[in-house]
């Protein structure tokens, strides 16, 4: 992992050090800042002080530190520190000018239980539901648009996993940081790379005695191995891009790109994925964006594939019924009412 000295950031430094800023995006001319409330602010060239020369120098320094080429033949460059992820695109492909994106990935959980309840991110009974899903070892897929905060939600929810249950996180960019957040937990943090793909990581993880396998984002054929891992009795979470929880199974089927296996794989998804959660964003009157748990659905496969929508627009749907196989999971975990506090939870967070 890289160590970037503060002075290397030059005109970026004040924005990188601003705790309210989550993303710093330079498009070759203007600078755009994204804040914790998901509002964005444009900084003009006359104010941000980033010149074309500095942008090239910054890219060259990162290239030297990473040992990777950055030129028209190798137009993309990435680097990570414990706190930041930096991505740069060369002007050979970014014709509007060199593009620099700096995203903060601090080892902290931005969502706290208290703030989640006070801000309307989640209602109390829906939070009980989610915590009971962890207690019952249900497999959870979190959906939403880009920047909705899917990984942050997973980080928050994973804090309720008992410390003695081994967790393996698999990411291409280290954002979950589960072991750093819970140093007393039995946990492994894995990072995929060119010679160690998501598929490789999931297969290897099964040999490391995990209780939970967490894949930060599922994008492609690795979904087949993830569902296979769930079929062995390992539990887990992942995130995908989808606009409705009911679309999660078909979205996952589309990733395998194998028409001969589609129906069989769809059945497996309904069999081994238990819960779908949709994280949405809503613009408030003051212009800020509020993230919240919008939908929760449950999947089951008996004689046919079953989907039950239990939460919509953040509110419980009273008449909805939990599928039979998932009721049995709750019974085995001694959970009488999934909407009520299920008892003590291990939960430790680092500030």
Automatic annotation (TrEMBL):
Annotated ranges, domain Bacterial type II secretion system protein E: 78-257
Matching Gene3D superfamilies: 3.30.450.370, P-loop containing nucleotide triphosphate hydrolases
One Pfam entry name: T2SSE
Classification via InterPro entries: P-loop_NTPase, T2SS/T4SS_dom, T4SS_GSP_E_ATPase
Protein name as catalogued: Pilus assembly protein CpaF
Family from the record: Belongs to the GSP E family.
Entries under SUPFAM superfamilies matching the protein: P-loop containing nucleoside triphosphate hydrolases
PANTHER family: TWITCHING MOTILITY PROTEIN PILT, TYPE IV PILUS RETRACTATION ATPASE PILT
Molecular function via GO: ATP hydrolysis activity
